[in-house]
Amino acid sequence: MASDLLVRPATLADLPEVARLAAQLVRAHHAYDPRRFLCIEPVEVGYARWFAQELDNADAVVLVAERGGAIIGYAYGVLEPRDWNNLLDAHGGLHDVLVTEAARGTGAGAALVEGVCARLAAMGAPRVVLHSAAQNVAAQRLFARLGFRTTMVEMTREMGPAVE
Prior knowledge:
Blueprint: E1 5-9, H1 15-32, H2 43-54, E2 60-67, E3 70-80, E4 91-99, H3 108-122, E5 128-130, H4 137-145
Parallel strand pairs: 4-5
Antiparallel strand pairs: 1-2, 2-3, 3-4
Helix pairs in contact: 1-2
């Protein structure tokens, strides 16, 4: 099944579908914890604008996974500078990976992650760092299988009255 999978750089023509998928990712995170994860509607409009800029950013990678002419996933990464606050040297940041529900388990997610990692490495990234929502155990298993290791645990504390 993976033989008919095409992972390629996103184009302007892909952005409506990429933005739709990105909005799914945002809404899923917001559903995990609405106090932690930002969700500004309409998400699709903001992401389409953002990715249009990133397509022209020499430090960014936006890939799509396509099967049978249909986009079934996307991934986004970017070269990041040294960050003293996080004790993190220059690296590639893998910020987004999403594969449609119907295409999960077909190798598309792994192909997208490997594609972004390969491109970031070719651009000089000595490592790739990502964040995964604590609840997204399936994604964490994929990332571990692809060689990522846990290095930090994010914790959030709300200030003010508790919201249930």
